[in-house]
Amino acid sequence: MDTLVAQLQRQFRDYTISLYHQGFLDDQFTELKKLQDECSPDFVAEVVSLFFEDCEKLIGNMARALDQTGNVDFNLVGSSVHQLKGSSSSVGAKRVKGLCITFKECCDSQNFEGCVRCLQQVDIEYKSLKAKLQDLFNLEQQIVQAGGRIPQVDI
Amino acid sequence: MGMITESKFHVLAVDDSLFDRKMIERLLQKSSCQVTTVDSGSKALEFLGLRESNDPNAVETHQEVEINLIITDYCMPGMTGYDLLKKVKESSAFKSIPVVIMSSENVPARISRCLEEGAEEFFLKPVKLADVTKLKPHMMKTKLKKEGEKPSEEENATLKPVIEILPLHQELESEQHESSTLSSNKRKAMEEVISTGRSRPKYNDITTSV
C-alpha cells in the first residue's frame, strides 16, 4: 500500500524527469542542485526567483526598445538578450536559452519581425517554466510537510 | 584535539551581474572558500588597496586583507576583467595573486590574450563546481609563497594553463599561433556546441600553451 509520502515522491520524481526530457531543463539545473545544502537550503529557489525577475526586467527593456518604431536600437535589444542568455544558461533553462540564441541572431541581422516574434516566444516560455518550477517546488513542500525526504533524482 | 584547522582560502569575485555574483559566491562557498564579491573592477582594486596612483607606500599598508585568488568576469562596463588582470599583474604587491577570468563567450583571441597576460585559467560560463575545484592548486601556491618558499619564475612559466574550451582543443594544438584567425563559422559551431548544454569532458591532462 502506497503511503502519501511515497506517492508524492513518485510524483516528484516523474515530474522532474519529464521536465528534463521535454527540454525545459538541462544538466545545469542539476549543477544548481549540487550547490544546495544545509548551509544554503533554499539556494535553488532563490536563484530561480532571481532569474525570473531578470526575465521580467530584461523582457521589459527589450519590448521598450522594439517599440521605438523606426528607431530601434538593436544593440540595446541584443545586449539584453545576451544577459538573458547568460542567466538562462546558468540556471539550466534550456528552452529559454535556445530562444535567446535565435533572438540574438535576429538582433545581429536587425530583423525586426524576427525580434518581435522571439520576444513573444521568450515571454511565453519563461512564464511556462516559472509555472512548472512552482509546481515542482510545491511538490517538494508537500513531501516535507508529509514528513518525507525529497528524493534525489538521477536523470 | 590537536587538529590544526587551516584558514580558508579567500577569493575575491568580480562580476557586474547580481545573478552571476550569487552563483560564483555559492560555488566558492561550496568549495570551502571565503568569498568577497564586488560588482566592478575598480571596486576590486579598492578592496585590494590598490590606488590609481600606484603609490607603493600606500599599497604596503593594505596587506591585512589576504586574497588567495581573484576570479573576474571578462565583460564588465568600465574596467573589463582583462583591464583588472593587467592592473593586478602590474602591481608589485599583488601580481602574485592568481587571477581567473570567466566569460559566457568562447572567443579564442580573448582567451589567449588573457592567458598571455598572466591569467591562470579561463572559465566558460556557466561555471561549474568541477571548474572551481581546479582553483585549489593555484591558491595553494600563494600559501606556499607565504611560507617563504618562493617558486622560481621558471617554475611558474611551466605551469601550463588548462583551457576550458570544448571542441577547440584539437584546433589549438595544431594552430597555436593562429587562434585569432579561426573562421567565424568555427566560432559559431563552437557556440552552438557550448549552448547545447552537453556536459564537457574533462581535459585535465591536456596542457595547451597558447
UniProtKB/TrEMBL annotation, chain A:
Residues 40-147 form the HPt domain. One of its GO terms (molecular function) is histidine phosphotransfer kinase activity. SUPFAM superfamilies: Histidine-containing phosphotransfer domain, HPT domain. It is found in: Cytoplasm, Cytosol; Nucleus. Gene3D superfamilies: HPT domain. The keyword Nucleus applies. The keyword Oxidoreductase does not apply. Its main location: cytoplasm. The modification Phosphohistidine is found at residue 82. It comes from Raphanus sativus. It comes from the Eukaryota. Signal peptide: none annotated. Histidine-containing phosphotransfer domain (HPt) contains an active histidine that mediates the phosphotransfer. Functions as a two-component phosphorelay mediators between cytokinin sensor histidine kinases and response regulators (B-type ARRs). Plays an important role in propagating cytokinin signal transduction. This is Histidine-containing phosphotransfer protein. GO terms for cellular component: cytosol; nucleus. The lineage of its organism: Eukaryota, Viridiplantae, Streptophyta, Embryophyta, Tracheophyta. InterPro entries: AHP1-5/YPD1, HPT_dom_sf, Sig_transdc_His_kin_Hpt_dom.
UniProtKB/TrEMBL annotation, chain B:
Residues 10-140 form the Response regulatory domain. The keyword Iron does not apply. The modification 4-aspartylphosphate is found at residue 73. Keywords: Nucleus, Phosphoprotein, Transcription, Transcription regulation, Two-component regulatory system. This is Two-component response regulator ARR8. The keyword Nucleus applies. It is found in: Nucleus. SMART domains: REC (SM00448). PANTHER family: TWO-COMPONENT RESPONSE REGULATOR, TWO-COMPONENT RESPONSE REGULATOR ARR8. One of its GO terms (cellular component) is nucleus. One of its GO terms (biological process) is cytokinin-activated signaling pathway. Pfam families: Response_reg. Residues 170-210 are annotated as: Disordered.
